[in-house]
Amino acid sequence: MMMMNKSLSMNKAPVAAGRATQQPRSLKVAAAPPGGPAPEPAFPVAAPEAPPRTSSGPVSRAMTSRYFADLDKYAESDVVIMGAGSSGLACAYELSRIAPDCKIAIIEGGVAPGGGAWLGGQLFSGMVVRKPAHGLLDTLNVPYEDEGDYVVVKHAAQLTSTLLSKVLEAPNVKLFNATAAEDLIVKPDPNVPGGKYIAGVVTNWTLVSLNHGLQSCMDPNVVESKVVVSSCGHDGPFGAASVKRLAAMGMVPEIPGMGALDMNTAENRIVENTREIVPGMVLAGMELAEIDGSPRMGPTFGAMLVSGQKAAHVALAVLRKRQAQEASATGNRSTGQKTMTA
């Protein structure tokens, strides 16, 4: 951070020809009485000019028009990511880089994305990231202290805020936070194992989802996709939402739940088991522990990041396969129509 001297100044923008220069107004501070506290230094502040209209309508439209345009654009996405915790954000970041043509919608139930990655273990500030996940930190230019087998970020929020900002900068990613995934879209497909594939998510405002008992009917909306990546975390209020639903529909066996803590094996199991669990759905992060019965890992985040990155590559492979199948089916229909016309 640059050190400023006592006389704070503001850089003036060039003034267009014919316009008068408006000097920034200063906050004047009365002199302190003898023996009293020192006055605050005057700080030059340019007060915003009053807009030509004082109606709040344009402000409202500036937000709503963009939001509803995003709803329209991402109603049919290539990939939906459920959960914007560390693995979900890592997946979105990696996928946005390796597939810039891919339209990615992130559905996050909380107002604040990031899941549990704003703090380390037991609400401590530092974040432990076991190697080789530090490679992502290098890519993001997040500093750390190297402790040999792992690195330590001085505050977990530094990594999470940086990763989140990079995800939001991507032109092919839209984050819908404060939005709950209430259910899954399941469609028949005779060409996949089990005859069904996951084709998107059922959404609602999180506050509505939490208060369905107050009204007789608060119907949801949908976001369709060719692939869903579920990174909803371990069991909790919104945790393991996808594997619970898959088990209820009989698409996966009974869920054993995650095992007790074993830091030596937990992270490898999460990364190795990151996979397409049923046609159209890829699991990442701690949600895998719920369905595989693998141990919880405690206060380390390396596997969350690497699992998210691996999930991006798995999801892209699933996406390209489905796109090829759809293109082939479209070509076959076109050929059939030409034959009938002839």
Task: Summarize this structure briefly.
The chain is α/β, with parallel strands linked by helices and 342 residues long.
Plain-language structure description:
The modification 2,3-didehydroalanine (Cys) is found at residue 217. Residues 325-342 have a biased composition (Polar residues). It catalyses: [ADP-thiazole synthase]-L-cysteine + glycine + NAD(+) = [ADP-thiazole synthase]-dehydroalanine + ADP-5-ethyl-4-methylthiazole-2-carboxylate + nicotinamide + 3 H2O + 2 H(+). This is Thiamine thiazole synthase, chloroplastic. With 342 residues, the chain is of the alpha/beta class. Helices cover 35% and strands 20% of the residues. The chain has helices spanning 57-73, 86-98, 134-140, 156-169, 206-209, 241-248, 263-273, 287-292, 302-341; strands at 25-26, 44-45, 76-82, 104-108, 127-130, 145-146, 150-153, 173-177, 179-188, 196-205, 221-230, 275-278, 281-283. The strands form three sheets. Strands 3, 4, 8, 9, 10, 11, 12 and 13 form an eight-stranded mixed beta sheet that branches. A three-stranded antiparallel beta sheet has the order 5-7-6. Strand 3, helix 2 and strand 4 form a beta-alpha-beta unit. Helix 2 packs across helix 9 and helix 7 runs parallel beside helix 9 (302-341). It is globular and about 95 Å long.
List keywords for this structure.
single chain; 342 residues; alpha/beta; eight-stranded mixed beta sheet; three-stranded antiparallel beta sheet; 9 helices; 13 strands; 35% helix; 20% strand; globular
